[in-house]
């Protein structure tokens, strides 16, 4: 009888353990009711080159991305020069020679960055076909018109919000008379 009880208890425990080991299947996910989102338009400069061929787009993007490390270094030089200018201007006594040096350093770094960008763009323009160059010009003009329209709309909204007209900004008060020296 003891063996029968032990066997029954073992069988009962095994059944309970087997029931716990196999979890119920998870419910299937609901069917997708909304269609997937369309792909986003290209970001950055690619948006402005929509009418160009793929090789033309790649050439222009390569020119815009050319030598980013050097451009970053020049940008850091420009920022450091501007910080030096502010430090000189913040001093009790104005050191015009130090201010001029900082201004010269800023101009040199900015010019180096611009020259590098223009050189890369020139090489890219030379590699474009006539159709791609014309598409670039059309896209550039279209982009310029969109920006001008956007700026004009913002200015009109601002003028409407603030009363508009020439009286939007009050005239400057007259300068007080200078004391005699």
Automatic annotation (TrEMBL):
Region (Disordered): 20-54, 141-181
Pfam short name (any one): Metal_resist
Biased segments, Basic and acidic residues type: 141-154
Signal peptide: 1-19
Statement: the UniProt record of this protein carries the keyword Zinc: no
Record keyword Signal present: yes
Keywords: Signal
Highest taxon in the source lineage: Bacteria
InterPro entries xrefs: Metal_resist
Biased composition (Pro residues): 23-42, 170-181
Descriptive protein name: Periplasmic heavy metal sensor
